[in-house]
Amino acid sequence: MSSLGEIAASAAPWPSKTEMYKSLIEKLVSERNITGLGEFIPEMIKESIPTSTSRPVIEEWANKTLDIPESRGVENEKPRLDHDDMIKLGHESLNELQKRTSSFQEQIVIVRDVLSWVHQDKEEWSRAADVLKKIPMDSAVITEKGDVFRVSLFIRIARLYLEDEEYYQADQWVNKAWPLMRSDMEESLQLQFNASFARVHDGKRRFFDAARKYYDLSHLVGPDEQASALRSAIICVMLADAGPRRSRLLASLCKDERTQKLTDVYPVLRKMYLDRMITSAEMDSITFQGHHLSIAEDGSTAVDKAVLQHNLRSASKLYCNISFIELGSLLGITAEKAERVAAKMISEGRLNGNIDQSKEVLIFTDNVTVFNKWDAQIQLVCNNVNSISEAICSKHPEYRTS
Q1: HSE on the CB side for 312, CA within 13 Å?
Q2: How far apart are the first and last CA of the chain?
Q3: How many CB atoms neighbour CB 135 within 10 A?
Q4: CA–CA separation, 9 vs 45, rounded Å?
């Protein structure tokens, strides 16, 4: 049969018509007959055609018309139809299928799945994710497929949004996947989840959480991917808010033998671990991602903020106290900004110190405590020496000086 009308008018039984429809689909695709393919779905949703025929035919139409070879694991093979034609046919078919959603729930899911691959192949990442996220996730069709299918779908949507740096959208789908994750799921799925979670933290500037996730990931992936995960962990811990938690993670990373091979980031990592001052030129030698260098409302980047906070903590190891004018000069900022940054870090428990506003001085209590302990130890030694001297003189008065 050469047309939809001829098949519909045929007296053949429905199982035979099903095969006729499938053969016609293949013929139209090979001929690149976009008009003929566009007429298929409106024909299939007619109530005069039993669903035992229309459902498998619609699935065949979706898989043949919107076929992206890469989605089937086939590389170096081009699609048979133009991307724009496939996108037009895919969205038109969804509009038609929505008219009978209750009858074609499974087929709508299949069309959305293959249509998202078309957008993805065209590097329209967010549009691909938008197509998938409109699948009714709580429908019986989806829940019956089990948790592994749902997690895979959620992570796929998150990863598509991440490609376009839509971190807040990606965060929603990673969080949907999180309660469904189980330790007995495929290792590849768990790695995709952990990598997506780390990238979301990174993109949303939760750098400490991102660093920890990347570092955990470096112990799970193969040797070829370890360097990438470690480098990401190091970069994120450099950008994390300075404080005790960051210092502990800096220590773990610096003492990890694998990081010493990363010569582009290890020298700065080691200096940070040793609480040495870092220059902007040293940070410029590291390749950061776009969102690390995006300018915030205060005119600074995440890199600027990280260097400033780190150097302030480094200063706390060198000085007992310092005026804000001197501190600003040391950090390359104004005295007012130095006071604001110090006050914020102190209030958040990331810097031990207090501010004497009348004298415009920052007092580092860590060093005060160290020197107080030193003074106390010297006093104890002096007292012991004095006690011994008194004991000797009481036995030998002649030793006592006049």
Answers
A1: 31
A2: 131
A3: 17
A4: 16
